[in-house]
Amino acid sequence: MSTLAADARLASRAESRAHSVARRRRYWSSLGTAALSAVIVVWTLAPLYNMVLISLEPEGDVFTDHIWPRVPSVESFWGVLTQGHWYLEHFWRQFGNSLYIGLMVTFFALLFGSLTSFSIGRMRIRHGWLVSNAALLTYVIPASFLAIPFYRIMQNYGLANNPWSVIAALVAFATPYAIFVLQEYGRSIPIEVDESARIDGASPPQVYLRIYLPLMAPALVAVGTYALLLAWNEYLYQFLLLSSKSSMTVPVALAQFLSSDQSPWNYMMATAIIYLPGGLRALDGQRAVPVPRAGREPALQADGGQHGRLRWPRRERADVPGRPASSCVAAGGSRRSSPSSCCPGRFRQFRPLSPSTGC
Questions:
Q1: Which of 16, 56, 93, 105 has the fewest Cβ atoms within 10 Å of its own Cβ atom?
Q2: How big is the chain by its Cα radius of gyration, in Å?
Q3: Neighbours of 315 (CB within 10 A)
Q4: Is the dihedral of CA 315, 318, 320, 325 positive or negative?
């Protein structure tokens, strides 16, 4: 008995020692993670803080060794908003050009990408994989190598100093990525949803508009965010293709500040800070789209005679005693499937079986 008691005490001591070692290891691991996170946060926010610091300095007193300006001034922000500096004579027009180019690039990238992915993935056109692979192959060539050819092409077509030349170039760069992402995301949508809609008489445009696009909403937001930020931060093609101050965008206009011997750094940083919220708003837009949880597939429900709207299926329940079973269940189907998978015709509500047709 004494030997068993000694062994039990030794085992408990070893177990407590292992627990203390594991506790210390977790503590030091958490401490190291927190320290590394703090370093990364400071490293990331330091340039932004420096931008704010310079923008609040009075003109002529930009580079100082103070952590905070001794006399903070919002003169530079007011000068940007009122276009009070000669570099900022066309600021709001340039801001509108940036917004217009970003929205057009986003729209056309989503349009061409969704139509191409729908044609290849859902309509299953012959040799569709060649289209998607050839589009991705264009990323092998760096975009900077194509700048001069794009400039010559736009000159030949009379689109020099025209925002549509930049839109055409950026759409060409954003569309292959859009096709790839939308095509991969579309594989998670059951093809039976499209087939049931076609049985009910839906045409390909109706399937695309009423079924495909609503189910692709999360991927569309992700691709749209990428396309918008690509156009919002682009500099090379906007610098080459847009020359006049009234047609250029804000990134190109910011570079004009460096053309003088004494650059107004406070105005430049204030302009960049005012221009920044557009990109942040694009990133924040991703949170507005709900992503369906795993294990829940969409089903088609009717809303009265037309091609119906998409709703998530309700939980299955047994038929009410004394009433006939629904047509789909009686035909061996599931309540989670479309009514059209059992009874042809328009999208219908579940209804009792007909004694004559059984549907």
A1: 16
A2: 31
A3: 6
A4: positive
> What is the residue range of 46's domain?
19-80
HEC letters along 6-19:
HHHHHHHHHHHHHH
CB distance 301 to 316 below 8 Å: no
> How confident is the model over 283-318, as pLDDT tens digits?
555 454 444 443 344 444 434 333 344 443 343 443
Q: What are phi and psi of 255, to 5 degrees?
A: -70, -25
* pLDDT tens-place string over residues 177-226: 999 999 999 888 888 888 888 898 888 899 999 999 999 999 999 999 99
**Total tally of structural domains belonging to the chain:** 3
Q: Looking at residues 73-90, what average pLDDT do you find?
A: 85
Contact 264, 59 (CB under 8 A): yes
Token code pair at residue 34: 């927190």
Q: At which of 238, 259, 280 does a domain end?
A: 259
Residue 247 structure tokens: 């047609």
Q: How far apart are CA 75 and CA 298, in angstroms?
A: 55
Same domain for 359 and 313? yes
Q: How big is the CA angle at 342 (ends 339 and 345), to the nearest 5 degrees? A: 65
Residue type, 89: E
56 torsion bin: left (phi>0), alpha (psi -120 to 50), beta (else): alpha
Residues in the chain: 359
Q: What is the pLDDT of residue 331?
A: 39
**Closest by Cα among 85, 96, 89, 82 to 278:** 96
User: pTM value?
Assistant: 0.69
